[in-house]
């Protein structure tokens, strides 16, 4: 069964988006007209009563969205790994002396050279799912790659300083 998100206009306040969990809990986000956001938790006994509310700054809302998005993406990759014989997921760090640090992801030609797909880039506490070929890699980035053991090993050598 799919997740149902209910949207409720709150006159003079903004909009509330609400999700009911499988365990019967109700959580949501109130987006105020002035741009503020509140994470809300509803009283299970009273559907109209908010039990707790946490105001979020833009940075906090973005960090929470990144955490949720990253955990879902990595969970899906883990599921793929369990169901695909010989297909692995690996995180590889871009070293400071990598020939690709400061260059677009497309310059690596990872898929054509190794058969590996780079499905995300982790930079600090931010995740960039499905980065395009124009995404510029930086030293310290962690690429999340999916492929065979051989292909992942080739990618590791490719992005290391030894590759050029």
Ordered list of secondary-structure elements with their pairings:
Elements: E1 5-10, E2 14-20, E3 26-32, E4 37-42, E5 50-56, H1 58-83, E6 88-93, H2 110-114, E7 117-123, E8 126-129, E9 142-147, H3 149-159
Antiparallel strand pairs: 1-2, 2-3, 3-4, 4-5, 6-9, 7-8, 7-9
Would you kindly provide a written description of the structure presented here, covering whatever features stand out?
The chain is of the alpha+beta class and about 160 residues long. The chain has two domains: about 5-55, no CATH class; about 75-160, Regulator of K+ conductance, C-terminal domain (Alpha-Beta Plaits, 2-Layer Sandwich), CATH 3.30.70. About 25% of the residues lie in helices and about 35% in strands. It contains three helices and nine strands, in the order βββββαβαβββα. The chain has a five-stranded antiparallel sheet. The chain has a four-stranded antiparallel sheet with strand order 6-9-7-8. Strand 2 (about 15-20) and strand 3 (about 25-30) form a beta hairpin. The protein starts with a strand and ends in a 5-residue tail after the last helix. The model has no long low-confidence stretch (mean pLDDT about 80).
């Amino acid at each position: 069964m799919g997740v149902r998100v209910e949207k409720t206009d709150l006159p003079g306040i903004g909009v509330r988006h609400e999700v009911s969990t499988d365990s019967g809990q109700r959580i949501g986000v109130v987006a105020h007209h002035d741009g503020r956001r509140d994470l809300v938790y509803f009283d299970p006994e009273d559907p109209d009563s908010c039990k707790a509310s946490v105001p979020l700054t833009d940075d906090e809302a973005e960090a929470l969205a990144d955490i949720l998005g990253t955990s879902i993406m990595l969970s899906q990759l883990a599921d793929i790994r369990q169901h695909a014989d010989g297909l692995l997921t690996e995180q590889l760090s871009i070293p400071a002396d990598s020939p690709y640090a400061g260059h677009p992801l497309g310059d690596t030609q990872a898929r054509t050279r190794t058969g590996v797909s780079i499905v995300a880039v982790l930079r600090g506490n931010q995740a960039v799912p499905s980065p395009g070929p124009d995404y510029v890699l930086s030293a310290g980035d962690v690429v999340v790659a999916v492929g065979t053991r051989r292909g992942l090993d080739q990618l590791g050598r490719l992005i290391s300083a030894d590759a050029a």
